Amino acid sequence: MINLTQLTLNSTIGNLPSHDFQVNSATLGQIVAEKFRLQPELPGVIITQSTQMLGMISQIRFLEYIKLPEKKKIYYRCPVRELLDFLNTPPLVLSENFQINAAALTALNRPKQYVYEPIIIVLSNGSLRLIDLHDLLLAQSEILLNLDKKLQEQTDKSQSETLELYLEENDDDEPTGFLLESKPLIKKIEKKLKQHKKKSNKQL
Fold it and tell me: Which one of 46, 133, 155, 167 has the fewest beta carbons within 10 angstroms of its own beta carbon?
């Protein structure tokens, strides 16, 4: 995991904070509830059977559904798979190499009722992790801020270089007005700007 300020447009979701909470489909709901109580930062739980991933239940949906006393009695004593089958939430599963910006857009394009559900990522070794959507959107925002800052720095640098070029070409014996209308000078400035623009685009 890297510092958010180091994220770029090419950064992937494998760089983001992730959570490892998986249980077998036969695990009782009470055990899952206790884990959520002890670790409220967990975005959800991945349900597996043998080596197969069956689905995911977010902590928010889990707690919302069992908050009613009658539901709590039922699902605390039943395998968590029964709640998974009832909620029937389609998980979003992405490779750890998926770019952050693309992952955020993919997540937000889900049906409205699933937009804020956690994302399951598949690591290179095949293991599964959960990413909270809040962390994903925070990372995307940081990338956009970093990009905006970089573009502003390049714009300031370009303006500074253009001014320096003008001052170098402007000697004391020649009127400023004449220099501003001088075609050779204008062409030099335009050439300088084009070169800087190409260099900036390569850096981005």
Answer: 167
